[in-house]
């Protein structure tokens, strides 16, 4: 089980730190369970049991297409969103919809931790010894062929961030996969996969150029291992803890 | 292989003419007027085969875009159009009917239908198409009504409530018209709305009979539901039926039992969920049934479009029914008696390991509290997209998913097997970025021998597909997929001969028609209808 190797300690599930999320503050275990049940029966068929099947939405991580308060989500559940596949649910009571919101808030709060590291020192590692900006950008600073990290604190939990630093091949998100093509003249081009289909492939190469290839015209092509190095040997334990804290602080709300 | 049928398109089709009424005789012999497309699949046998042969393997690479009609809808465009003497009718989701000039795509009229506010569909406010009789179009609606609309004026003729929308009933399927009756079924099974198949008088809308897909107390089959579980057992009817004029039987596939995942509250086989039911069109009485997946806990709806074909089986020509099921098994049934002739997996299947002599599957894998991997995926090997059969090649063309799997946790919505959960996503309209590698679920169009059910060839796609297939007398098979290509394959070899990037997901079955001697191929993709013809 991966949690045994994490350096992130002092895990405190942060119901208390939900700040402003009124529904969760007053939630009872019954509300959450009932909300989960309603979610599974009414929402999961489209949003998926993990709440992440609609692009741009990931309930388990608290990611929505826009910042939504509890009342706004209740309204969407009950009335749908016009001209989108999100239907109204006229048979559902407002109380029931509110319990779904309670469940969504509690769900995205699970596993959040209070971090030991110093985010400011972590930032210095990110832009310094870590050489992270050789591949990644935060708020427009850095290279773009690695996944953009400006909102990574919303998208990944601390334990996942730490895994990505220590053992980057363990969990590669589909959107972070690496693809390599060999052109007829022997040139090898590698980069982050942006899209592909039966006939073509689109990547952002290591020079930050958008490239599109017709697969039939290539000498070779396919998925490749992640180029992300493991930092266990090059950064100290303290630096990694600080870096995790910095990354966890990146919510996209500020410049960095 | 049957002898080649060459249709002289120019001789059989003049310019856009004042439409003659679509009589039952014309519907019965729809194959004889291939310049039209008179029901969802073209013909009652659902072969989705066009006798038009202007577009061939030799010239298909000269296909080019003729016109596009863009719907004012962000719902999936799942409808197959009808074409009647130069007029094309289709549905703008959820329930607007549009009449177009089939040669130019110009709109004659739009019939706007406003659903009741309580209307709700589990999986998209979609519609798969229309039926026609005389000069009347028929459409099922999301608020569970059946409407009849004048095909010339676009005005409502009658509207009948089939079931209560507030009770989670909805209709997304295409009606079937036979003689003077129009038949429709109801969706909503995932919400516990029990399936209904009902017959109406085409002229008046008067209900003639009603068949309940879950038998009520005292009716045979009710004992296959423990306690009162039959009351909310689902078994919805949400896809197109076939009709066999020789036996006067019509065949509908039925959906999964409800609740979908928790079979412990509905012990028993749960008839007639996940079945095909053969009904007498005059009375609605059940002539026979075959249950594909008894006591289903994986949402293996059997709502695929049945194909009727005469197939050589053990030295004898049988009046057969072909069925590539969501549960990963392909079936050859006798359509007169319902006898199970042959069945076998056509994708990776691990939930059963064989059939008994009556065709009952031997289930060997069950959902568990800790989760069990099932193949195929909960969304299936096939789902609702229509297949095709060519009497020229004698092959059965199925568009489906391969290598799909799901982890079933007892009583819960199954989870995706693997890191990339996108394999589970329902179809959407737009081209979506795709990251799967070759080990993950992907789409295929495959040709199968109907007698052996063996694969003859395969066209592999990177992404999965919710698109149907069309076979033509030009020995072509048309198909598409979620990645936004519409393509033509050699019907005998599967070789890719032509493709068009249509920019959105193909979530419908293609069809073909002709105007003034010109063969058109049409398919819905994204939120638009595309038509192609030779340049």
Polypeptide structure, described:
- The complex is a heterodimer of chains A (256) and B (535).
- Chain A is an alpha+beta fold and 256 residues long.
- In chain A, 32% of the residues lie in helices and 13% in strands.
- Chain A contains nine helices and seven strands, in the order ααααααββααβββββα.
- In chain A, the strands form two sheets. Chain A has a five-stranded antiparallel beta sheet with strand order 6-5-4-3-7, with no helix packed on it. Chain A has a two-stranded antiparallel ribbon with strand order 1-2.
- In chain A, strand 5 (200-205) and strand 6 form a beta hairpin.
- In chain A, helix 4 (70-79) packs across helix 5 (94-109), helix 6 (119-127) packs across helix 9 (237-248) and helix 8 packs across helix 9.
- The longest helix of chain A has 16 residues, at 94-109.
- Chain A is globular and about 65 Å long.
- The two termini of chain A are 33 Å apart.
- Chain B is mainly β and 535 residues long.
- Helix content of chain B is 2%, strand content 37%.
- Chain B has helices at 9-12, 24-28, and strands spanning 49-50, 63-70, 82-84, 87-92, 96-101, 107-111, 131-133, 136-140, 145-150, 156-161, 176-178, 181-185, 196-201, 207-212, 242-244, 249-253, 275-280, 286-291, 307-313, 316-324, 329-334, 340-345, 352-355, 361-363, 372-374, 388-390, 395-402, 406-408, 415-416, 442-448, 455-460, 470-472, 476-480, 485-490, 496-501, 511-515, 518-525, 528-534.
- A five-stranded mixed beta sheet of chain B has the order 1-32-33-34-35, with no helix packed on it.
- In chain B, a hairpin with a 5-residue loop joins strand 23 (352-355) and strand 24 (361-363).
- The longest helix of chain B is centred in the N-terminal third of the chain and has 5 residues, at 24-28.
- The two termini of chain B are 30 Å apart.
- The interface between A and B is large, with 34 and 43 residues.
């Amino acid at each position: 089980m991966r949690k045994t190797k994490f350096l992130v300690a002092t895990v405190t599930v942060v119901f208390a730190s939900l700040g402003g999320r009124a529904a969760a503050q007053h939630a009872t275990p019954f509300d959450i369970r009932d909300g989960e049940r309603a979610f599974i029966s009414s929402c999961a068929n489209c949003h998926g049991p993990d709440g992440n099947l609609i692009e741009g939405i990931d309930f388990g991580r608290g990611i929505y297409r826009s910042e939504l308060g509890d009342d706004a989500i209740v309204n969407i559940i009950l009335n749908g969103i016009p001209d989108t596949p999100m239907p109204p649910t006229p048979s559902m009571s407002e109380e029931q919809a509110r319990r779904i919101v309670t469940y969504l808030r509690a769900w995205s709060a699970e596993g959040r931790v209070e971090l030991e590291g110093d985010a400011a020192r972590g930032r210095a590692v990110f832009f310094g010894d870590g050489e992270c900006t050789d591949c990644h950008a935060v708020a427009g600073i850095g290279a773009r062929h690695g996944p953009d990290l400006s909102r990574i604190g919303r998208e990944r939990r601390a334990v996942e961030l730490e895994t990505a630093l220590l053992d980057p091949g363990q969990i590669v998100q589909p959107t972070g996969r690496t693809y390599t093509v060999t052109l007829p003249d022997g040139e090898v081009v590698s980069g982050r996969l942006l899209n592909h289909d039966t006939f073509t492939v689109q990547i952002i190469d290591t020079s930050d150029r958008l490239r599109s290839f017709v697969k039939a015209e290539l000498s070779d092509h396919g998925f490749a291992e992640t180029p992300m190095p493991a930092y266990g040997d090059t950064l100290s334990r303290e630096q990694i803890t600080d870096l995790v804290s910095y990354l966890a602080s990146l919510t996209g709300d500020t410049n960095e | 292989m049957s002898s080649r049928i060459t249709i002289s398109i120019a001789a059989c089709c003049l310019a856009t003419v004042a439409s003659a009424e679509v009589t039952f005789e014309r519907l019965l012999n729809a194959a004889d007027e291939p310049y039209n497309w008179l029901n969802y699949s073209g013909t009652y046998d659902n072969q989705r085969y066009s006798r038009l042969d202007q577009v061939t393997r030799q010239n298909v690479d000269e296909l080019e875009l003729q016109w596009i009609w863009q719907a004012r809808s962000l719902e999936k465009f799942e409808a197959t159009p009808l074409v009647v003497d130069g007029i094309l009718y289709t549905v703008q989701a959820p329930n607007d009917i549009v009449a177009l000039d089939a040669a130019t795509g110009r709109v004659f009229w739009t019939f706007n239908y406003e659903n009741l506010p309580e209307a709700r569909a589990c999986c998209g406010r979609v519609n798969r198409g229309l039926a026609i009789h005389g000069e009347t179009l028929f459409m099922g609606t999301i608020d569970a009504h059946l409407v009849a609309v004048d095909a010339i004026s676009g005005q409502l003729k009658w509207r009948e409530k089939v079931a209560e929308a507030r009770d989670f009933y909805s209709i997304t399927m295409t009606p079937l018209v036979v003689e003077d009756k129009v038949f429709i079924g109801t969706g909503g099974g995932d919400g516990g709305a029990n399936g209904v198949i009902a017959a109406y008088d085409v002229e008046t809308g008067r209900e003639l009979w009603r068949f309940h897909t879950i038998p009520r107390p005292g009716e045979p089959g009710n004992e296959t539901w423990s306690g009162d579980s039959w009351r909310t057992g689902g078994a919805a009817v949400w896809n197109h039926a076939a009709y066999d004029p020789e036996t006067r039987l019509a065949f509908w596939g039925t959906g999964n039992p409800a609740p979908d995942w928790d079979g412990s509250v509905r012990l028993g086989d749960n008839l007639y969920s996940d079945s095909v039911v053969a009904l007498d069109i005059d009375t609605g009485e059940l002539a026979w049934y075959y249950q594909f997946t008894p006591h289903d806990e994986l949402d293996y709806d059997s709502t695929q479009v049945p194909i009727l074909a005469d197939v050589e089986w053990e030295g004898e020509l049988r009046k057969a029914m072909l069925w590539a099921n969501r549960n990963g098994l392909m079936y050859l049934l006798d359509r007169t008696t319902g006898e199970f002739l042959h069945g076998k997996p056509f994708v990776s299947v691990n939930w059963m390991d064989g059939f008994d002599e009556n065709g009952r599957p031997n289930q060997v894998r069950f959902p568990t509290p800790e989760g069990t991997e099932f193949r195929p995926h909960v969304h299936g090997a096939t789902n609702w997209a229509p297949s095709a059969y060519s009497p020229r090649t004698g092959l059965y063309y199925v568009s489906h998913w391969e290598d799909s799997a799901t982890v079933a946790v007892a009583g819960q919505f199954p989870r995706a097997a693997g890191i990339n959960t996108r394999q589970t996503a329902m179809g959407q309209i737009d081209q979506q970025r795709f990251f799967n590698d070759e080990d993950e679920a992907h789409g295929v169009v495959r040709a199968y021998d109907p007698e052996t059910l063996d694969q003859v060839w395969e066209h592999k796609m990177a992404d999965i597909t919710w698109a149907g297939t069309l076979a033509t007398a030009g020995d072509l098979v048309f198909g598409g997929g979620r990645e936004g290509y519409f393509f033509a394959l050699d019907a005998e070899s599967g070789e890719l001969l032509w493709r068009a990037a249509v920019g959105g997901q193909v979530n419908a079955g293609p069809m073909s028609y002709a105007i003034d001697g010109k063969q058109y191929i049409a398919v819905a993709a994204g939120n638009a209808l595309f038509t192609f013809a030779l340049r």
